[in-house]
Specification:
By secondary structure, the protein is of the alpha+beta class. The chain has 3 domains: 2-167, no CATH class; 185-449, P-loop containing nucleotide triphosphate hydrolases (Rossmann fold, 3-Layer(aba) Sandwich); 452-568, no CATH class. It has 14 helices and 30 strands. The protein is globular. The termini are far apart.
Length: 569
């Protein structure tokens, strides 16, 4: 292997030459304490920055073995190192010191959630740390500025590696805080399972966010406080005993006046499938990890989905048992979202009436009397909630302040009153009965037919030529075919969206074979991501910039690909 000095010499020699000479630097170099690998060199100063990684030997990185005991700890530590690296870079932003991306050093900038990312990986056995980044190789106009790159690679980067990617004994407690939190969160997830809970919201949690565009905790918010009747006490390995509201599996209704905090609670539950960093306010707000937000999404495409649980007698004679459309209505889109959630294994549906198709959810008695049943294709969700839980074990948490009809099917009714929850189950039920309401009859449905098969589509040619782009968090394109994921509200990071795009590409090129069912394809994708990590999504070489998406979002992305053919077996 070449030495760091070799690289320095090479760079000196190419100073002021034309930019493409930088290409010669591709390769690995031994630095003091780590290996620097220049994986890909940009073609000109304005192109995507060059790809660089460092490999810090386990002994040199020095993280004690117990730091990586268990995947949850490893992921938490990787996330922490990424944050430390991001902070180190920020202090030294050198952009603007030349043309194009000159002087840029960047990697992932994690937000409030702890995600498995390609930027930082720690080997479970050896403790080796691999860290991947992008570097804008500096230029004067279009010629090489070697001095600046030498400064970046020989002064700045070693400093970042030392401060962010190696163990510092004097900071032991701050690492332990991160790892202990990871242990505690895992303990809560296990407790959910053991106690038949869909979610846990700790007393004292801060649920609201600072603003619609900031994910930071709101200052001076009313801390969460569980009603006594729903209070559970959990014993965590590090934090000890904590109390909070346990949301039981089954049907839970969140009611309350407008602006009293219903949606805020539901949104906290949506994000509770992920782990949050210390200081977020939602550290101990944990939702079982397959929970899925369901909403209406008119305009989406649907591929051969059996939505007959909710829809029958479509006016154009179409078969709701094998329903396809390029442009779903509010109600059919929401029906498809529910069925697809069941198909991909969601254990809990999270629904906010603010984003529902009203006619999908409930129909009042007067309307039932005026519009004959055979003229109404929709069996409302309220009529099926019980069946969905009893038959498939899928729970539902529904925030709905507009219809008392839901009292008849709810196991638990929580009222939000000035941001504080109250258990009003008994009162709601007795009012319901006093008013002469009856729970819906005719609630039995038929198990949806999930036998769908994805076949390869014609548009993809040679794997390497398939162009993948993402548009922030909201969507991506593959070979110019757009996929809209903006209504997948549990996507929290652009890197997840980019990873989804690559997941679809991987599925199309490597996994979809025209005979495996939709569920089977999901299983195989997940297995690949489990064994190879999110790096499985990087075709030519592992690079930073991808965060592993959940099975639920992968399914949702595949379902929204208009170019795929998904049909009945
Ligand atoms: P609802 O869905 O019941 O109409 P929201 O959840 O949208 O109400 O909340 C209304 C407003 O109150 C939002 O601006 C939200 O940020 C704020 N809010 C929610 N929970 C709290 C809280 N615990 N403390 C302070 N403000 C809160
Ligand atoms: Mg609301």
């Amino acid at each position: 292997m070449k030495s760091a000095d070799d690289l320095k010499r090479m760079l000196h020699d190419m100073d002021h030459r034309s930019y493409p000479s930088y290409k010669q630097t591709k390769g690995e170099y031994r630095f003091d304490g780590y290996i620097l690998s220049i994986d890909h060199v940009q073609g000109d100063p304005f192109a995507s920055p060059s790809r660089v990684s460092v490999r810090v030997d386990g002994a040199r990185a020095g993280f004690p073995p117990e730091f990586r005991a268990g995947k949850h700890r490893r992921t938490a530590l990787e996330d922490e190192l990424a944050r430390r690296f991001a902070r180190a870079i920020k202090k030294n932003d050198r952009r603007g010191s030349g043309s194009g991306k000159s002087g840029l050093i960047s990697s992932s900038r994690p937000g409030q959630e702890v995600l498995e990312r390609t930027c930082c990986r720690i080997d479970p056995d050896s403790g080796e740390v691999v860290f991947r980044m992008e570097i804008g190789f500096p230029a004067f106009g279009r010629s090489i500025n070697a001095g600046e790159l030498i400064h970046m690679l020989f002064e700045l980067l070693p400093e970042y590696v030392k401060s962010a990617l190696t163990y510092h004994k004097d900071k032991h407690d701050s690492y332990m805080e991160v790892l202990n939190l990871a242990d505690d969160r895992l303990a809560i997830r296990k407790a959910l399972d053991e106690r038949g809970l869909a979610a846990f919201v700790a007393d004292g949690a801060i649920l609201p966010r600072r603003s619609g565009v900031s994910d930071l905790p709101m200052e001076k918010a009313v801390p969460f406080r569980s009603p006594d009747s729903l209070k559970v006490t959990l014993s965590l390995p590090h934090a000890g005993e904590i109390t909070g509201m346990g949301i039981k599996r089954g049907i839970t209704l969140i009611v309350g006046g407008g602006y009293h905090g219903k949606s805020t609670l539901l949104q906290a539950l949506e994000k509770g499938v992920y782990d949050h960093i210390k200081g977020d306010g939602r550290e101990y707000v944990i939702t079982e990890s397959t929970a899925m937000k369901i909403r209406s999404e008119d305009g989406r495409c649907v591929h051969s989905e059996d939505i007959s649980l909710f829809i029958s007698n479509l006016p154009d004679g179409r078969d709701a048992g094998n329903f396809s459309t390029e442009d779903a209505s509010g109600s059919t889109s929401q029906a498809a979202n529910v069925i697809e959630a069941a198909e991909c294994g969601a254990g809990t549906l999270l629904i906010d009436e603010d984003t529902c198709a009203t006619n999908f959810m409930v129909r009042d008695e007067l309307m039932q009397r005026v519009i004959n049943k055979d003229k109404e294709p929709i069996t409302p969700f309220i009529d099926r909630m019980r069946y969905i839980f009893d038959s498939f074990g899928i729970s539902c948490v529904l925030a709905a302040g507009s219809s008392g009809a839901f009292f008849g099917v709810a196991d638990t009714v929580i009222q939000m009153d000035s941001y504080v929850p109250y258990d009003i189950t008994d009162r709601a039920r007795s009012e319901y009965e006093k008013a002469g309401y009856r729970p819906p009859d005719d609630t039995e449905g038929q198990e949806p037919d999930f036998n769908r098969v994805i076949s390869r589509c014609g548009i993809f040619g040679d794997g390497d030529r398939v162009k993948v782009r993402s548009h922030g968090r909201d969507g991506f394109s593959i070979d110019h075919e757009e996929v809209d994921v903006r209504y997948l509200e549990q996507l929290v990071d652009n890197e997840q969206t980019l990873a989804l795009a690559q997941t679809v590409k991987l599925a199309v090129l490597d996994i979809i074979d025209g005979s495996t069912t939709f569920r089977g394809v999901l299983d195989r994708i997940e297995k690949r991501l489990e064994t190879d990590g999110p790096e499985a999504l990087c075709k030519r070489m592992p690079v930073c910039g991808y965060a592993r998406p959940r099975r639920q979002e992968i399914a949702a992305a595949l379902n929204r690909c208009r170019f795929l053919r998904i049909a009945r077996k």
